[in-house]
Each structure stands twice: as C-alpha cells, then as structure tokens.
Write a structure and sequence with these properties.
Layout lengths: L18 E2 L2 H9 L3 E3 L8 E2 L2 E13 L11 H8 E6 L4 E3 L4 E11 L4 E7 L1 H4 L3 E7 L7 E2 L4 E10 L4 E3 L4 E9 L6 H11 L13 E4 L10 E6 L6 E2 L6 E2 H4 E5 L5 E4 L4 E9 L6 E7 L7 E3 L4 E2 L14 E8 L4 E4 L3 E9 L27 E2 L6
Length: 381
C-alpha cells in the first residue's frame, strides 16, 4: 500500500496567510511532515501553486467506481471491489472503458488549518483520461478535508486512448489551501480592471470570469480544433512529442457559420476566444459551464498556475485549451459562446517563480494545442 505518515507528524501552519500555497510553502510543508512520499520529489514535481502526484507500485482493475464514505478506508473497498492487481514498476497498459484505482507515492498529514483539492494535469485531460483523487473516508472525489491524515489513491478511466503508465507517472495534481481564498464577483471584477484577466473589455462575471469558444479558426487553414479518433494505438504518458497527431486526431476547420455540432460520446479539443492571464498573486481554476445552458462538459483539467499568460513569463496571448464532450444529444456550439468560467483564488504568498519560467511548462503562450505527447504541426498548417 502507499506510504502512510506516522500519527504524530502533523505539520503546523501557524501564521500562514489565507490562500493557495505557493511552491516554497509546499516544499516547507513536506519538510515538516505534512506531505510524505515513498520516493523523493522528482524534478519539476512542485509547480508554482500545486504538486504533481505520482502513481505508486500497484493499480487495481475495478468492478466499478466508488467512494469509501465516512466510515471506510480505500483499502477496505479494494478488498471486495477490485478484480485484480497490476504491478506498475515495469509499466502497464490501462484499457479504455475500464476503471482502475492506483496507489500514489504521496501521503498527507495535514494540520487542521489546511485542506486540499486535486485535478487532472493538463496533459491528462487533453487525452481524455478521467482521473480523480480518493482519500480514506472520502465523501467526494478530489477534495481532501482539512486535517486529513492518510494515503492518497487515484481513480483512472481512459475514455478514448489506451494508456501506458508506470510507477512515478503523473496524472493528477493537488493544491493546498489555507482558509478562504476564492474571490467573489466584486473581487473578480476589480482584479480584471487592474490586471486584465481576459481579453474582453467587459467580461461576464457570475461565479467566475466567463470564457467563450473560438470557432473562427486559427491560421490560414482556419483550424478550430481536433476530434479524437477511435481504435488508435496507445499513448505513453511519460513520452513527450512521441506520437503523430494524425494517428490520434482528426483536424476540424471552421465552417461558414462558425459553428460546430458536438456528437454525443465524441471528444474534442478546442480553444478559448479570449487570451487568459493569471497574475502572480493569484491562481485560477476552470469550471464546467452550467449544464442548464447546454448538454456538454468543458475542461477536465482545471488548474491555471500563477503567471499563466503573463507577459513577464513569456505567456502573452495564451488561450485556455478546452476539453469538450457532449452528453446524450448532439449540441451546436457557436463562435463566441460561453463555455466555462475561470474562478480566481488568492495565493497565500507569491511564488518565487511563475508558470513558464521553468522547464516543464508545456502550455505557456499556447493557442490551440494538444497535449505534450504529440508532435504538433504549426497551427497555420
């Protein structure tokens, strides 16, 4: 099973300002026992406002997805729901349409003042891998209650492409939060006026800053996105620029109406019409748009680090890449239609470096971009 921290080694967060913990605070939390790991942190694992989580030595194929509930540990659920265990040290293929639960190398011993939330990494969401973190006694996925002490697990379900993973592969990321950090609508408007959060003079602000879809197209070919192919080869989660785009994706060009019919069950990569900016003092998260407005989901991977789209970090003009899936019925998207909202949260402290200023920042200054696993052609092609 994954590493578990001793009961007595709970960290203190006295004097910490409310907000999302920055990289140096995450490292300090690990140094005093609040984060434990079966192996030392890998290079690039700590991001400006988050920590990548690594797969452990075993993954279980499951009968079904589950939540432990307030009185059970994940290990107890594995005993009666797991079909079989798979060793990951030598690598293993996770098949589409199946549900897996993997132990993670990281464990937590949080003080009462800290909670956490997880999300798929950007590269994970862009290849349509549905993954979420589970804790012991969890009543919700991806949420870690304040004061949690115990192991972490990841539920993994590849939706479109089979996936090759191994011990140390990173599919999820976690943010640590001290107190209340989320901005209300008035604070979102004030931050936009001072920092220019999106390239819209007066964006819609209601539970976050609105982001719309670009269906006018990029470059001379008016490329608007990609539709995932079925029955492809597998994707090695740890190999960068190793797969040919056309083996896995069908390019989509703009039509005369600047619209796109989303077919049920299909997976699309699109881009926002607005450029997005996350100032150094804040972090952001993309949330799916209200389902009452349309039968589709946008964005599995929702974390945007401080410095995303910032000029000083080389990110001028960065768009939000949208992972889109329609539910049940065909749905027409039109150019400029609102598809999601960015929710900004205050940082507890400004990180010492910004997204895009270190190796491993794969999506700074992006327009329309697939995951890092693909050899991307120029957008004008």
């Amino acid at each position: 099973m994954p590493m578990t921290l001793p009961k007595g080694e709970k960290s203190a967060a006295g004097g910490m300002a409310p907000g999302i913990l920055a990289a140096h605070q995450i490292e300090a939390l690990a140094a005093i026992g609040g984060i434990g790991a079966a192996r030392p942190f890998a290079e690039g694992q700590v991001q400006p406002a988050s920590l990548d989580l690594r797969l452990g030595r075993r993954v279980w194929r499951m009968r079904a997805s589950f939540l432990p509930g307030p009185r059970r540990n994940v290990a107890e659920c594995l005993e009666w729901l797991a079909l079989h265990a798979i060793e990951l040290d030598g690598g293993a293929v996770l098949e589409t349409g199946s549900v897996y639960v993997a132990e993670l190398l990281e464990a937590l011993a949080l003080p009462a003042s800290l909670a956490a939330a997880a999300n798929p990494k950007s590269s994970t969401g862009r290849i349509d891998v549905f993954t979420r973190v589970i804790t012991d006694r969890a009543r919700a996925f991806d949420l870690v209650e304040s004061g949690y002490h115990g192991p972490l697990f990841a539920e993994i379900s590849p939706r479109t492409f089979p996936l090759l993973v191994r011990t140390g592969s990173r599919l999820s990321q976690i943010r640590f939060r001290c107190g209340s950090a989320r901005l209300d609508d008035a604070a979102h408007r004030a931050l936009h006026e001072s920092e220019g959060l999106v390239t819209s003079a007066e964006p819609s602000v209601a539970g976050g800053v609105a982001v719309s879809v670009d269906l006018a197209g990029f470059g001379a070919s008016r490329l608007v996105g990609y539709r995932a192919k079925r029955h492809t080869g597998l994707i090695d989660i740890d190999r960068v620029a190793a797969h040919d785009v056309l083996d896995f994706w069908e390019p989509i060009r703009a039509d005369a109406r600047r619209s796109l019919v989303l077919d049920p069950g299909e997976f699309y990569i699109l881009a926002s019409k607005e450029s997005v900016h996350v100032p150094a003092s804040h972090a952001a998260e993309m949330t799916p748009f209200d389902p009452l407005v349309g039968e589709f989901r946008v964005h599995y991977a929702g974390f945007f680090d401080p410095g995303f789209g910032a000029v000083e970090a080389g990110g001028s003009g960065a768009r939000a890449v949208l992972e889109v899936r329609s539910h049940d019925v065909p749905f027409i998207l039109e150019d400029g239609q609102i598809v999601g909202r960015l929710i900004y949260e205050r940082m507890s402290e400004v990180p010492g470096w910004l997204y895009g200023q270190a190796a491993g920042s794969n999506y700074q200054a992006q327009t329309l971009k697939l995951s890092k696993h693909f050899k991307m052609p120029p957008v004008h092609a």
